[in-house]
Each structure stands twice: as C-alpha cells, then as structure tokens.
C-alpha cells in the first residue's frame, strides 16, 4: 500500500511527520495534490498547546492551501482531475487542519463530501499562482469580517492587528470604497505595509490611541464623554485585552 507523510501535532510544542495510506476518493469525495500550504498563526497556537484534541491524540495541521485535483468520486461535478483549486477547510464540516482527520501539510489531501456542498473546493483562476492561491483562505476570513461589520462607504474604520487578517481587511475595505482606515499594531514593519496599502498606522506603544483616533476620526459624545467618532472597530489580534480596549474606546452605535 502506498503511503504519504503527513505533519501531525503529537505533544505540546511538538510535531512530526506520520506515515498514512495514500487517500482515496469515495463517491462524494475529492483528493487533491497539495501545491502550497501557508502557516497560519493558529497553526503555531495549536502546536504550542499540543493540539485541539487533548493529550495523546495527534492532530493534522495545515488549512491554507492551493492544490491540483488528482481524483474525484463518481458524484462530484464541481471539479475534475487536473483542475487547479483552493480548498475551504471548513466546507462540508471537514475542519481540515482544525481538529478534523485531514490536514494540508501533506502531499495529498482527502476533501470529504465535496459533492454534497458548493463551498468545499473552488477552481483557481489561471491568472493566480499557487502561492497566491494559498492566500485565498486567509483573505476570505478578512472578507467575512468586513461583511459582518456591514461597513458602508464613507464610514471610519479602525483595525486592531496588522497581521495577515488585519492587512487583508484593509485590502477588502479599500476595495469597497472605505478610505478613512486606522490600523493599530506594535510592529513597525507590519504598520509600514498597512501604510502602503492606504491605511493610517498607529504604533500601539507610542501614545494614547484614543486621542489619536479623535484626531483622525473626530469626536462624539457618549454618556457625557468625548469618544472617538470611529464607526467600526475590527479586532484582528486575538488578544482579550485588546477587545476590552476596543469596548472602552467605542462610542455609541460603533
């Protein structure tokens, strides 16, 4: 039986390749050959905590990937062998690289039940490289955040966190016509990119972010206090204290 090497977390701060059988496609499944797979911040967190499944239960890693279809089940109509694709790791409830049995740090990946839902595997346009294709998943997270915020043209946006998701939010917001964007982070190099993308950067340890936001977005009165008149705040750091900071900054209706 042909085997492949798959990266699994096997303990706290520990991961290693594991030999598993080459996946085969059932009637509703797709098997893809992984071309590129990004390392997400959550991957690093999973490794640090020993995985999501508990002690002694290995966890497959990798969920930001581009691939080429290598096999399809009889019921699959959305893609065919040879198609370049991106994979939705949460499509069909697979939780690829997020607690499910499969992960993208592997030469071949089984995408279960791709025939049953429309959002499991998507064709990758010829004009996008495999490297850019691996960024589709994190960019979709950024897009979802912007859509959830219901941002409207002319509104004033603040993004806490200039990692890949926060910077992706800048791209999406700019695409939707939002021009007044402040990005808050501790990293000067990441804030430099935020500026290049059209946002106004603020280094979090350089002063009072509330006063800076008042300078950029104006003030509004909430319960007798002058608060920044920012319309939408998006938290993209994953740090609880930052969420508390945003709640304390936000004025009425933000």
Short description:
The chain has 254 residues and is an alpha+beta fold. The chain has 7 helices and 14 strands. The protein is 26% helix and 30% strand.
List keywords for this structure.
single chain, 254 residues, alpha+beta, five-stranded antiparallel beta sheet, four-stranded parallel beta sheet
Outline the structure in words:
There is one protein chain. With 254 residues, the chain is of the alpha+beta class. Helix content is 26%, strand content 30%. The chain is built from 7 helices and 14 strands. The chain has helices at 41-49, 130-133, 136-149, 164-175, 188-196, 209-217, 240-249; strands at residues 3-11, 14-21, 30-38, 59-60, 64-72, 84-87, 108-111, 121-123, 156-160, 180-185, 200-203, 219-222, 225-228, 232-235. The radius of gyration is 21 Å and the shape is elongated.
Which spans of ≥5 residues are poorly predicted at pLDDT below 50?
none
**Roughly how much helix do the residues carry, as a percent range?**
25-40%
SSE ordering: EEEHEEEEEHHEHEHEHEEEH
**Number of strand elements:** 14
**Any idea what the radius of gyration is?**
21 Å
Instruction: Note the overall shape.
Output: elongated
Question: How much of the sequence is in beta strands?
Answer: 25-35%
Major sheet attributes: 5 strands, antiparallel
Report the average pLDDT across residues: 95
Number of helical elements: 7
User: Would you tell me the structural class of the helices and strands?
Assistant: alpha+beta
Oligomer status:
single chain
Strand order of the largest sheet: 7-3-5-6-8
End-to-end C-alpha gap:
58 Å
